[in-house]
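Task 17 of the worksheet. Students: predict the tertiary structure of the chain below and write it out as structure tokens. Keep your answer in the requested format; marks are given for formatting as well as content.
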Amino acid sequence: MKPRRRPQWQDEGEDPDYRFTLANERTYLAWIRTALSLLAGAVAVVQLLPPFRIAGARTVLGILLAILGVATTIFAYIRWEANERAMRTSRRLTYSIILPLLSASLGLVGIVILALVIVERK
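Model answer:
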């Protein structure tokens, strides 16, 4: 079996303090847990909720949650790598648009759920 190659960027600059590297990794894992929760929510919405009066609402909601889950995994890695590079080269950590995007997206999903519940109650 061929040994795994490290990404080239890991040879840039100096190795950061292990505490910071591990903290960055814990943050990455927290993002992955969030992504897994979103994916589990997508499955639960599609498989466990009774159908709404609006045809296809469960499917659309499940797709939205699944897309958010997949996007969160991608952005988690991108953010982890950017933080790791910044620490290695003694640069500032970059601003990430991920947090407000995820918040806004989840807020939108929440509004859709509220609208579906209100329509269901009438």
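Marker's comment: Helices lie at 18-48, 57-88, 98-121. The chain has a mean pLDDT of 90.
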